[in-house]
Amino acid sequence: MTKRVAVLLGGQSSEREVSLSSGAAVVKACEALGYDTTAIDVGDDVAERIRAAKPDVVFNALHGRFGEDGCIQGLLELLKIPYTHSGLLASAVAMDKPMAKKIFAAAGLRVAEGVVASKDDVIGHDVMERPYVVKPSNEGSSVGVKLVFKNDNFFFTKENWPYGETVLVEKYVAGRELTVAVLDGEALGVTEITIPSGFYDYENKYTAGKSHHICPAQIDSKIYDEAMDMAVKAHVALGCRGLSRSDFRWDDEGDGKLYILETNTQPGMTPLSLSPELAAYRGISFNELVRRLIDGAKLGD
Fold it and tell me: Of the candidates 100, 124, 229, 262, which lies 20 to 30 Å from 167 by C-alpha distance?
C-alpha cells in the first residue's frame, strides 16, 4: 500500500512564511517519493483536517510556536498518529531557551553567561554589562533578538518593548557563527555562516544573498570536532529524535572557546536551509532526507 503522509505547514506563528516554504519543498519531495501526500495549512481546524486526511504519518514542517514547542506534538499523540522530528517533551524544552540552557549546562556544554529578566528589569536599564543579547524566551529563527552594544544610545521603553513579561539576557559572544545538523544521533558536519553586515537575524537567515554558508566550515579541526560532539550531546540531552540543528559561536579572537546558543528541533527545509545543505554534503539528497525522517516517525519521546 502507498504510505499516506500529511505535511503540516504554515500555521499562525511569526515563522509562518518560512514554514510555508519548508512545507512546499517537503510536499514536492513526498510526491516524488511516491507517497499519497496531503498538505495541511494549520489553523484552528487542524485536528479535523488531519483526521479527514487519514495519514499513516505526519511530517511536521511547522516552525515557531505551536509547531515546535510541544503543542502540535501533544495533539498528534492524542490522535495516535506517528510524526517526524522530536517528541513533545524535547520540543517543549528546546523551545524554552532558559530551560534548554540549564540542560546544556548540566550536560557539561559551555553556554554564555545569562539571566532571565522581567520586563520591568530591562525597560530603561541594563541588567548586565554591555554588550549583551536580548532573546524572547520561546521564539525561533532569531525572531525578536536584539543586540545591545557598549556605545549604543539605546534603552528599551514601554513603546518599543516587543517581548512579553520575561526574556533571556545573555553576554554577547563575539566571533564566528557555526551550526551543526544531527540526523538520527549522528552529526553531519559543521557549516560556518558569514554575514556581510549585522548578525544572523531573521532577515539575514531567510533572504537570498544576505548570508553565506561555508560547508564544510574551514576552521581548526579541533573546533570542528568539538562542535560536532557538542551538537550530538545537546541532541541527546534534550531527548531529540530525527533531525536537529545546534547553533554555536566560536570566540576565535577572544577566549578561543566554543559556546552553544540553542538547538532547533524543527530545522528549516527551505531552499536556503542549513540542515539539507549539510545532509547533501554527506551525500544525502533532499528527497532521501525526507524519506529518512518519515521512516523514523513515531509516537512518544
Answer: 229
Query: 185 catalytic, yes or no?
Result: no
- Confirm whether 132 is a catalytic residue: no
**DSSP, res 172:** -
Position 65 scores a pLDDT of: 87
State how far the Cα of 223 lies from the Cα of 168, in Å rounded to an integer.
Answer: 26
Say which of 13, 264, 273, 275 is annotated catalytic: 264
Quick one: 104 and 246 in the same domain? yes
- Identified catalytic residue from 245, 259, 273, 291: 245
Residue 118 lies in a domain: yes
State yes or no: is 262 an active-site residue. yes
Clarify whether 70 is annotated catalytic.
no
15 catalytic per annotation: yes
Q: What is the pLDDT of residues 195-233, one digit of tens each?
A: 875 554 555 455 556 679 999 999 999 999 999 999 999
Low-confidence ranges of the chain (pLDDT < 50): 141, 200, 204
